[in-house]
Write a structure and sequence with these properties.
The chain has about 90 residues and is mostly helical. It has a domain at about 25-85. About 70% of the residues lie in helices and about 0% in strands. Helix 2 packs antiparallel against helix 3 (about 55-80). The chain is elongated and about 50 Å long. It starts with 13 loop residues before the first helix and ends in a 9-residue tail after the last helix.
């Protein structure tokens, strides 16, 4: 299976988006997750500045967990990269 480094189509549903993201090459998925964590962390900071402490804390927690997921996917990339076809890696 070829693993793209970017989405090939714009999915029509969130379920389709999940499949497309899951099919990304792991290094690209790691980058996506890191960017998502950064976006959610920025939202947390904005909510904290508005005095929404509980929301900000929840978003910050989500950002940390997404960062941990990105790190795990990064490890999966380092494990799988040597075993991928030249056109895939």
């Amino acid at each position: 299976m070829k693993h793209p480094i970017r989405l090939q189509v714009l999915p029509e549903s969130l379920a389709e988006l999940a499949v497309e993201l899951g099919d990304l090459r792991y290094d690209a998925l790691e980058d996506f997750l890191a960017a998502l964590a950064e976006k959610i962390r920025a939202d947390a900071a904005k909510d904290a500045a508005r005095g929404r402490r509980k929301l900000a804390a929840s978003l910050e927690s989500a950002a940390r967990r997404i960062e941990a997921s990105a790190a795990d996917i990064g490890e999966a990339w380092r494990i799988s990269k040597p075993h991928m076809d030249d056109g895939d890696a």
